[in-house]
Specification:
Shape: elongated
Distance between the termini: 53 Å
Radius of gyration: 33 Å
Strand order of the largest sheet: 3-2-6-5
Largest sheet: 4 strands, mixed
Strand content: 5-15%
Amino acid sequence: MSWMQKLWQTYDNNVDSVRNDNENIPLTPLYHSIRDMQLNILIDMNGHFIRAHLFNPKIKAVIPVTEDSDSRSSNCCPHPLFDSFQYVAGDLSNFGVNNDNDYSAYCKQLEKWCASNYSDSKIEAVYKYILSKSIIADLRDTGLLAVDSNGKLITNWNNTMGEKPEIFKLTPKDPTTKNYLQHKLTAGFSVEILGDPQSKLWEDKSIRNKWIKYCINMQSMEKGTCYVSGEKTILADKHPKYIRRAGDNAKLISSLDSGGTCYHGRFTNANEATGIGIETTQKVHNALKWLIARQGRSYGDFTVVSWAVTGEDVPDPCADVLDLAGVKNVKETYTAQEIGIQLSEKIAGYKHIIGDTTDVVVMGLESITSGRLSVVFYDGLTGSELLQKVEDWHTKCGWMQRIGKVEFVGAPSPSIVANMAYGKDGKEGFKADNKIRAMVVKRLLPCIVDGAPIPNDLVKACVERATRNKGIPDYVWETSLGVACALYKYQNMDRGYQMGLEKDRMTRDYLYGRLLALADDLEGAAIYSKEKKKRERDTTAERLLQRFSQKPYSTWLIIAVSLSPYKTKLRSDKGGVLNNIESGMDEVMSMFNSEDFISDKPLSGEFLLGFHCQRNNLRNRWKTQSPNNGNESDSDTEKINKEGETE
């Protein structure tokens, strides 16, 4: 079943949500769309102006539209009721903007609605007010619109002109000149009638129903086969836009016009290429807008949305494990067991709600140009399949992560992976731009949803980033280390890597990683400052991390020599600490094959796993052990090693 059929079914299955105005972006009725409105004009039953006020900019209004107006670009295609002053204001030309053709087209269209059997006394009141040609003058007199000394609408403002008018906070600007375009402000209408509690026409459901019936009655009798529903119906000539957000001009379906640019030489008309019913295309696009607003995730011009055809919530495949597990009380550290339990409970909850056989869709949309939107990823699954795929991803790609001050066990989000792989240096870490982030998400989606192999260059980039720790904060490097280990583990899942220290794993790269962590621990204990409660400086192992990954044996010789003075220092006052670390080094060294040890062949990402596991093992061991073979007290030793081996 195609994505259009799934969206069509989604709309029909969630028809009860069509008139739910409590949602920020509701599922809109047929022949309606969602638009921003900046002003509300109140009139009486006779079409006389009463007052006006500005809208809350966060409010989205459901307005009636025509097939042409919902997909208009620069053509003269007015909306039937609510529109910009360019269409509704008959006196706009008196204030410096010529709109005679647009105003005339708006009046003719509204007049037809008023003359039909589906009119309403409130609509007729608006029509009377429109014919008075006094909208701009009324709003000027109330002080809502800004005019200059010549009585023209002001297009720019500077500090010498005093306090900026409130209307300019809502006024769109010309993208080239940056001038304010007050004539582009959209007006909504309210009709106050004694005894009628609903004065706001955009919320009046009876008017919505009348407009739908009017549109159905005005349709032509010529029918064709809808490729989505399979029924004989009125086919759409144009298709909606504003799919991902307000102002989004990219369309999923467009045949342009009859000029021959789209189907010249192949078909005589657009419907021969693809026929989609007018109501079908509205259901499909309205459902997609609704889903993206509710549960979509955008990365610049790339948007990912997942949904169940029945309308129930489904897990976001691009979320990190904390969001997915529903962790609300964020603390500094979450263990693998804590996250695992919460994730399992959350997945079980989804299974109960969604059902094993429910159709679920994961779709990625991207616009390469401003006018075209493409489906770049699509996968239809059952509910049980999606839940299993998401759980597998966070299990198989799970590793110890640190994001800011929070530590947890799980898979990093695709956005974090993008930052670590290709982000640019910044004061607070690495950050990839939206294009790079979108590219990474597109490449990781098949891994998450379909279990595809992870791209090798992405793993390599994250591993290389984790070895370059100079000039970045410790917590940023910790993030890059966790991401690199997670991706390398997932890429090589056949090797069965564990998050805990594997003392029986005898591969060269893993052992070298363990050895580096022990050297870092030894020097760190020696240079730990009780006063500052941290290391006085970076250890030799930290400074030579990148060189170590390229030439491990020759670099290890340098590190080993540098440890001598620190061993002497620890032997005199922290002998228990030194004995434990040296015992660990001897154990690791004994596991090497001699030829592997003296080889300077570059290390793979596996050495980061050994390094990270050994490092965490040392941290955890000092929490439960307090060797007292030196002159320090048990509590001092525990504190030194618990804190000294962290940042």
